[in-house]
Specification:
Among the domains are: about 10-80, no CATH class; about 95-175, Arc Repressor Mutant, subunit A, CATH 1.10.10.10. Helices cover about 30% and strands about 15% of the residues. The chain contains five helices and five strands, in the order ββαβααααββ. It has helices at about 35-45, 65-80, 105-120, 135-140, 145-155; strands at about 15-20, 25-30, 55-60, 160-165, 165-170. A three-stranded antiparallel β-sheet has the order 2-1-3, with helices on one face. It starts with 13 loop residues before the first strand and ends in a 43-residue tail after the last strand. Keywords: DNA-binding, Transcription, Transcription regulation.
């Protein structure tokens, strides 16, 4: 079959673009087959960083998949200020260390315990992005709903925190909630007895015991 008769068109060249501010600070990295049109699209969607753009560089690739892979690596290494995707410090996750919970009872509690252990042993550090629910479910042999319940429990404990548009992160110690358990009084301390309060009866306008003058 001749090239003119090929059923698939050749991949289009795609640009990896970088936007910089006046001081040369990296603002944003992206890819597009039409980088000029892409900048206009950023302006039209009122991205807050667009007015800061003072310069741009372009790096061309023969196909979009090549450009996408280069974009991912560039964001992870160069850390532009306004990229969200691929721009988070992720936990070091080793699923092979986790046992399967497929045949276990109380799956959500057990999964929460696995995640809690990762945090308490400092394998997962404060500020790091944890795996997505699908990944947690697959690694533990459970389901996405079970994973959601487990991380919800850890959010309630203050071990995880959610950032809209980003995901779930290990909470910093100073942001974790204090325990609600009241410690027992220490030996030698004086505990003042509570004075019983007189019973109070709520009186309503239709209360027959009220006298109306």
């Amino acid at each position: 079959m001749s090239p003119a008769q090929s059923s698939t068109s050749p991949p289009e060249r795609t640009a990896l673009y970088r936007y910089f501010d006046t001081d040369g600070g990296l603002l944003y990295i992206g890819i597009s087959r039409d980088p000029d049109g892409r900048l206009k699209a950023h302006r039209d969607t009122h991205q807050k960083w667009v007015p800061m753009v003072k310069s741009r560089t372009l790096e061309w690739f023969d196909s979009r998949p090549e450009a996408a892979e280069a974009e991912k690596q560039a964001i992870q290494v160069e850390r532009p200020r306004f990229n969200k995707a691929h721009n988070q410090d992720r936990v070091a996750f080793a699923p092979s260390r986790w046992p399967s919970l497929a045949e276990q009872d109380n799956k959500s509690n057990r999964l929460a315990a696995l995640i809690r252990d990762e945090i308490e042993t400092k394998r997962w550090l404060p500020g790091q992005l944890i795996p997505f629910l699908n990944t947690l479910a697959k690694a533990s042999g459970t389901s996405k709903s079970i994973a959601a319940k487990a991380v919800g429990q850890l959010r309630h404990e203050g071990l995880l925190t959610f950032r809209a548009g980003h995901g779930l992160f290990v909470a910093h110690p100073h942001s974790r909630r204090n325990s609600l358990i009241v410690p027992p009084p220490q030996e030698g301390s004086t505990v003042r007895p509570r004075t019983p309060r007189p019973a109070v009866r709520t009186m309503w306008l239709h209360d027959p015991l009220m006298s109306v003058c």
